[in-house]
Amino acid sequence: MMRISDFQLKDIVNVTDGKKLGRLTDIELNSGTGAISALIIEQSGKKFGLFGKEEEIVIPWINIVKIGGDVILVRHGEKTTVKDER
């Protein structure tokens, strides 16, 4: 069994480019099933100056690749191409 506090200690890394996205600040739950539907990550560094709000990234549960001992690997910002099958 894993607790939310366990998730908050892990670094979140994008497998697309290998960059650390930030730390988990919140989760979204499916109210019907109670399952986690997304992770909310607060990026480090202020975008709007000293008193500005930090930018959040929402990672849908389906984009989580692996949850390891000290890291969560996710897919974020991938450009997907749709093949034209004419």
Descriptive notes:
The protein is mainly beta and 86 residues long. The protein has a single domain, classed as PRC-barrel domain (SH3 type barrels, Roll). It is 6% helix and 40% strand. It contains 1 helix and 6 strands; from the N terminus they run αββββββ. It has a 6-stranded mixed beta sheet with strand order 4-3-2-1-6-5. A hairpin with a 5-residue loop joins strand 1 and strand 2. The termini are far apart. The C terminus is likely disordered.
Explain briefly what this protein structure is:
The chain is mainly beta. Helix content is 6%, strand content 40%. The chain has a single domain, classed as Roll (SH3 type barrels).
CATH architecture: Roll
Order of helices and strands: HEEEEEE
**Largest pleated sheet:** 6 strands, mixed
CATH top level? Mainly Beta
Counted beta strands: 6
Question: At the fourth CATH level, what is the homologous superfamily?
Answer: PRC-barrel domain
Please report which band the strand proportion falls in: under 5%, 5-15%, 15-25%, 25-35%, 35-45% or over 45%.
35-45%
**CA(first)-CA(last) distance:** 48 Å
Task: Kindly identify the CATH topology.
Answer: SH3 type barrels
Compute the CA-based radius of gyration.
15 Å
Give the overall shape, derived from the CA principal axes: globular
> How many domain modules?
1
Order of the strands making up the biggest sheet? 4-3-2-1-6-5
Query: Helical residue percent?
Result: under 10%
Helical stretch tally? 1
The stretches of 5 or more residues where confidence is low (pLDDT under 50) are 81-86
Structural class: mainly beta
Query: How confident is the prediction overall: mean pLDDT?
Result: 82
Pfam family, one: PRC
Domain PRC-barrel: 1-77
Protein name: PRC-barrel domain-containing protein
